[in-house]
Amino acid sequence: MYIEALALTQFRNFASAKLAPGKTVNLIIGDNGSGKTSLLESIYCLGFGRSFRPGTYKQLIQHEAERFTVFAKVIEQSGRRHQVGYQRDESGDVQLRIDQEKEKRFAALARLVPVQLMTPESIELILGGPKQRRQFMDWGVFHVEHSFYNDWLNFSKVLKQRNSLLKQRRFEAERSYWDKQFAAYGERIKKHREDYLEGFLPVLEERLGAFLPQYKFEFYLKNGWDREVSLSEALIKHQDQDLRYGHSTVGPHKAELRIQANGEDVRNLLSRGQLKLLVAALKLVQGEYLQQKTGVQCIYLVDDITAELDTESQTKFCDALVASESQVFVSAIEMGDLNQLLQTPDTKMFHVEHGTVKEQ
């Protein structure tokens, strides 16, 4: 998948902007505050329905405007074209369109714009809590196994209702029904994740062998309950704890992906630069595995590519981005060595200044 045309209206500091990106590498150059990160953010919004920056959706709407719109023409690997649009107004109302038809669920749009983001803050994938790694894992499962989305939606509804009943101390009368639903959907989510990691991790380990050959990495999925028992049995075992705390203390919403290098937690062993290279490998390989399984190429968004990476690591990362033959958007304050590091036959460069974009 790649973006053939992108148009923004009243998005951040862009009153109106249009660009025709190249199929592979696109360099976005501009000073701090010029809007280069906002360009990446607009593409991210098409893939996730939200920003990757702090704040609310209202901050995406240009000052004194009523709504923002992001529109794109995207092309599948098969050559099939789609038009996608995302609009949100001050009240929070969202309008989604695919090929000029209204769309209710964001999942349909996300499948057409599979996006991987790499910023200096992406290191939180490793340093942050379990939720960060669950979201990473579930992005891959969502795009590779389409039945996962409905299972997750159904589980989320059951979890919300179960927690509400626990909090209100009204759970006992309805325990049998909700625990049965909870366990059924929870076990399915567990299976989706295990199947995904079974195929994904060998590909990742090969990439890490090139990126960080001095370490032997191991990955452990904790499902969110004792692996020696079923989820139904775990719910019975933890029923007093659930009632005491007023929420569900076991289940796939508590899952954790643990990462070790040479037998130690990577957070305690690797430098920040090495952790960033580990994150780069995780994101790159998720895109590669998506293409391997479905034929779909993801779009990579990279903000401040050189931060905390030494020259050798920069070269490894950039070579891998180019070798992926995916569409890549890279923002930077100045060109520096990027043109050599990310050179392809159709590399394009765009200059951003005061909310305007010009192709160089």
Automatic annotation (TrEMBL):
Protein name: DNA replication and repair protein RecF
GO terms of biological process kind: DNA replication; DNA synthesis involved in DNA repair; double-strand break repair; SOS response
Role, per record: The RecF protein is involved in DNA metabolism; it is required for DNA replication and normal SOS inducibility. RecF binds preferentially to single-stranded, linear DNA. It also seems to bind ATP.
Provenance organism: Pseudidiomarina salinarum
Highest rank taxon of the organism: Bacteria
Classification via Gene3D superfamilies: P-loop containing nucleotide triphosphate hydrolases (3.40.50.300), RecF/RecN/SMC, N-terminal domain (1.20.1050.90)
GO cellular component terms given for this protein: cytoplasm
Entry's family note: Belongs to the RecF family.
Key words of the record: ATP-binding, Cytoplasm, DNA damage, DNA repair, DNA replication, DNA-binding, Nucleotide-binding, SOS response
Domain RecF/RecN/SMC N-terminal: 2-341
Subcellular location(s) per record: Cytoplasm
PANTHER family: DNA REPLICATION AND REPAIR PROTEIN RECF
List of residues binding ATP: 30-37
InterPro entries named among the record's database cross-references: DNA-binding_RecF, P-loop_NTPase, RecF/RecN/SMC_N, RecF_2
One annotated GO molecular function: ATP binding
